[in-house]
Here is the input.
Amino acid sequence: MYKLSKSISRLRIKCKNEAKGCTATFPLSEEFCHSAGCQFEPVACPHQGCSAQVLRRDLEAHAQRCEHWRQLCPMGCGTLLSLQTQAQHNCYRQLRQEYEAQRQTHRAIAAALQRKMRKMQNTMAHMKRQIGLICESLEVMDSQEEAETTGEASSSTSSSSSS
Ligand SMILES: [Zn+2]
Ligand SMILES: [Zn+2]
Ligand SMILES: [Zn+2]
Here is the structure.
């Protein structure tokens, strides 16, 4: 009996993927180990959404051109790249475009603020002029009143009157 079991364990079996091209033979006890690394073992594509089953030896080639291939841009711009967009994606250009766009918005905001400030300054200058005019006319009225009440018709009726 001992001899038999020993010869069974020594019995070399063929890989179950023989039909797919694996020529390996190994003791029965090593079957699990072999199939875990067998290049002819069908394995699922690791990309989400892909239902392809490919031989392990073809997996790398498949994964590289799998249409479900997705990867975040390695430059860290946050863009999720696919096979189609990967070739066109130029991170530097994209970042630059974003930067330029941001700069233009900032410039536009600054210009708008400047316009507002200028408007306010204009309004303030206008108000100052108005206030000045009002003050002048009040002074004129005062001096006129003074002149009327005191009866003095001297040169104090000019706009630069005494206080
Ligand atoms: Zn095999
Ligand atoms: Zn795939
Ligand atoms: Zn990028």
